[in-house]
Every structure is written in C-alpha cells, then in structure tokens.
Amino acid sequence: MEIEILRDKKESLYVYKNEELLFYSKVKFNWNNRIIMIYNHNDILLLEVKYKMTFVKTYYKILYQNELVTENISEITNTRIIYNFGKRLYIKQDYFIALDGNFSYYFKEVRVSQLKQKNWVSKPKISLNIDDENLEFLNPVILHFLAIRAGYNSD
Q1: What is the pTM of this model?
Q2: Strand order across the 45-53 sheet
C-alpha cells in the first residue's frame, strides 16, 4: 500500500490514501520550539506535541492525546515512537550516507515501512510504502512522521 504525504507552504503535512485525506498536521512556531497538532480527516485533534530544541538536545513532549488514538503513545523522539505500553518503532536511514532523507521504520529488526522523499521537485512529495501484513503499524508510523517532520523545512 502506498500513502502519499504532501507539504504546504506553511510546513503542514497532509496524508492521503487513494487521494482521500487521512490525517493532517498544523504547526505553531516559536523561536526555539514548535507545537505540532495532528488531526484526522474529520478535523478532530488527535495529538498535540511540543518540539523543543536546545544547544545540546532536541526533545518532544506530548501535550495532548485524544482517546481516539488507540495506540496510547508514551514517547516520541527523532528516531523512535513508543506506544501501547512498550512497543517500539524506530527509524534507520536507508543508506549510510543519505542525502535524500529516505528512511525506513523497523519493529524488532524487521522493516515494516519505507519513506521515500522527492524534495528536489517543484512540488515535494513523500511516499510511505507499507505491506498489508504490516498495516497494524500504519497509524503509529504516520503519527510519528507527522510529529517529527511537520514544520521541518527540507529545502
């Protein structure tokens, strides 16, 4: 299954499956942090995450989580999401030196999805590929990607 993710000029992300909106994000910027709000296709706020950057570290704090988020997310970092009381998905770059930003999500050393980004085109596009046997990971992967990449300018 292929999911398409598009970015608008305000650095918000929109997630589509077969041209139907699944999720989208909105971003509020401050000097050294941003607030990422993730909504479903019915405009219901599902997750609100604060991203803060210091000179030493970056971190994410979950400010709000709607009960509709069945994954019960407990932690988000740049490289992983922990949900459902200990399940961990983490990302790895597809190549040792990755200039294109492509990476994959793994669960227990098994690749469950792959993200491919086309940043050098007039309308940047991100494709998320996930096999049918890994569909249980679809929502956590999408929520993590929206949390870490909304407001992230790849230009």
Answers
A1: 0.89
A2: 58-65, 45-53, 33-40, 20-29, 13-17, 2-7, 125-130, 110-118, 103-107, 87-93, 80-83, 73-76
